[in-house]
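Here is one chain, start to finish.
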Amino acid sequence: MRIAVNASCLSDFVYEIFLRMAASNPKQTFLFIFDKPFSEKINLPQNVVPLVIERNGNSRLKWKFWYKLKIPIALKRHKADIFISEKFISLRTTIPQLLLFPDFTFIHQPSFLDKKSVRFYKKNTSLFLNKAAKIIAGSDFFKKEIIKRYKINEEKIIVLPTEITNDFEEIPFEEKESIKEKYAEGNEYFIYTGIISPQQNLLNLLKAFSFFKKRQKSKMQLLISGKRGIDYEQFTESLRLFRFKDEVKVLDNLSASEIEKIIASAYAMIHVPVYDSGYSQGLQALKYKVSAILSSTGALSESFADAALYAHPENFKDLAEKMMLLFKDENLRKDLIEKERLQIGKFSHKSESILFEIIKDIATKNPLRTGDL
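Its structure:
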């Protein structure tokens, strides 16, 4: 079986799944398609063949040409049995396709996109959903939304929740204190981790933290870690004018292992996006056993149930109230962490095994498949 994967668009979580899948299935050939030069320094399993199909620019026209013409030609040339892509698929190829985690940002947060992108999604999302052989959703919440908005047969949509491995060893008290000293001047801190951008509702987080500081008069700090996103400079400029700017630390250049330690040492994680369709950075609270304040809208409550506090993402006072509640009640915080230990059992499945069976099922329906599955 020759499995073509649009590696150029995969989120880190999904990319890791396909690396593990390839390593676990050495008899199958995986074609990883990149839209820019591939770094030979990246270690790939021996059965992964990197294909560079350049887009030669980021214009909308170049992007359409890549999906509509270049991808179908490459799939045919390399005799792919299936094409897998996140958010988008090709509307021209006749090869069966698996669509991973469609994007509804254009519906719930259209201001985050330019007008041309919004028009593109409005025109093509229904076509993508109907063209796909199967659709992977990150939650039952999002599956129901797809069915409601686009009348897609529910049997076509498969829920694949985020896999959370329980392999992180809790760090000793002394190391936690060292982390606090290094990044928060020895104080307790709330942590946000993810894309650093106003689009992630971080301005409301700053407002909530300000409200919290005025009411509590504590030394609690706020750490914001992750990768720079769209309008990062706009966010840092807002922070420069923030009253409590000296108690907010932005960490955008740390290793993954260091961020793990910072999360595990936090007083609580805060993750309140305006919309969340399933898998997200907020789920890290389960892995690192940190109490969490999450968005009351979207799919996060499906994963955490009563193991977290919930705040409306557009109401900074509601978020501040939850921060104060957690700060004043240490027993509540410990209770939430204990409930998280029970919730993490829901995520102990092996995502790559489940996804591989779905891929095999789709590929069998390709009359031109290359060989045994």
